[in-house]
């Protein structure tokens, strides 16, 4: 099942890692192989190429809901520290490309990422990697 694939990466939940999991109606501990958690970059190696990417992803991928990072708290995570502050001030319907020096940058393969970089004075400059 899909749960087994997730458990292979983040570990099979137990009462120690998720208090009350054994009492959940659809959780049958005897039906799951017990896996230990591993680094997320072992499953998705690109997480190791982006500053703070693996740490942010691991804060979101928590079985125990109370341990998950909230979206509001994530906005203050170091992963976003290289982005211009004006991105956080945009209205919901505004394009991120109205912020100076924000552009798309292709990676190897087909994926595209938004990038911007600050210079030593804290201002955004183009041409950086995020």
UniProtKB/TrEMBL annotation:
Keywords: Kinase, Transferase
InterPro entries for this protein: Kinase-like_dom_sf (IPR011009)
Gene name of this polypeptide: cdk14
Protein name: Cyclin-dependent kinase 14
């Amino acid at each position: 099942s899909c749960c087994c694939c997730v458990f292979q990466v983040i570990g099979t939940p137990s009462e120690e890692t998720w208090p009350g999991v054994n009492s959940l109606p659809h959780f049958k501990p005897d039906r799951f192989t017990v896996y230990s958690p591993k680094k997320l970059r072992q499953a998705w190696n690109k997480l190791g190429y982006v500053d703070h990417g693996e740490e942010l992803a691991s804060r979101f991928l928590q079985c125990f809901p109370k341990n998950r990072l909230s979206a509001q708290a994530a906005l203050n995570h170091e992963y976003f520290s290289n982005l211009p502050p004006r991105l956080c001030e945009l209205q919901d319907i505004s394009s991120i490309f109205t912020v100076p020096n924000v552009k798309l940058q292709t990676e190897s393969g087909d994926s595209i990422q938004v990038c911007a970089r600050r210079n030593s004075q804290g201002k955004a400059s183009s041409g950086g990697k995020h």
